[in-house]
Structure formats: C-alpha cells, structure tokens
Amino acid sequence: MRRFALFVLLCAALVGCGAIADLATLQARIQDAGYKNVSLYHRSHNGTDTLEITASAENPALDDERIGKIVWETYPEHIDKLTITLNGSKNTYAEATLRDTFGERQITEKPDDDTDVMKSLFTWLIVGVVVFLLLGIGVIVLIVVLVRRSRHNSPPPPPPAWPPAGPPPVAKDPA
Description:
175 residues; alpha+beta; four-stranded mixed beta sheet; 4 helices
C-alpha cells in the first residue's frame, strides 16, 4: 500500500512540475525588471485562477502596471485574476481589465482546464495499476512454473521396503 501511495505522490509531483517552472521563470523576469523581494502564488479556487504577486521597488517609475505587463506577455498559465502588492499597495486586476490594458496575449496560453490535469493524473494512475497487476501476474506464473519444474525434476521415490531392513536371511542347512 505504501508503494501505491508513493506512486500517486510521484504522479502528482510530475503533473505540478511544469507550473512550478513557469512560476520560477516569471519570478526571474520580474526581478530582472528591477523589482526586489518578489514572491508569487498561483492558486485555483472554485474554477478561478488567481496569481498573487508581492514585490518591492525603490524606483518610483516601477509600478504594478509594469508587473502586470510582464505577467500578461510572458506567463503561459491561465489567469482570471491578478493581485499585485507593490510596496504594500495592493491592486487587483480581472482578466478582462488585463486584456483591455495590454491587448491580446502574445504568448500561447496553457489551457484553463483543470480536468486535463486530473485526466492525465488518472491516466498515469491507471497505467501504473495495470503495470503493477501485470508484474504481479508474471511473478505468480513464474512461481507456479518453478514449483512444477522442481517437482518434475525430483528423483523418483524408492521401491517399497527398499533398502531391506537388516542382513539378508541365512538359509539353514538341512543336514
């Protein structure tokens, strides 16, 4: 049962690796634009994808709209709501507002279908279970074959009353 739980955990981790890489790339782009103490959090709740960004900037020319542009033009995940907290000031932008402000996205957006992630997770889970069952059946067949072979190759049992018990009988001389 532990191995099955580890397998499920591994599948879930593999599914989430792409999203983590996208967040790390976005964080690096925001930092390269001059922002400091950048932290990101992308979550999905009741079908709404929210990206929360917290950063600080010493240069007053660096505003949260610039961060929004970086996100809109480079972050491939779907965003329904973007919340930017810059130097303690918090602003929230809806997807429609971002589209009106920055135009259509220049990057190919990954599908906003959380069921695709679940489908791939369940697909890998089913494949894993089938492979596990086939390996189990293979081990059982191997054990049966080896047990039958060992019984077939064993020496035949000795004939009854063999070897005779004690010395052979001595014939008495009639004379």
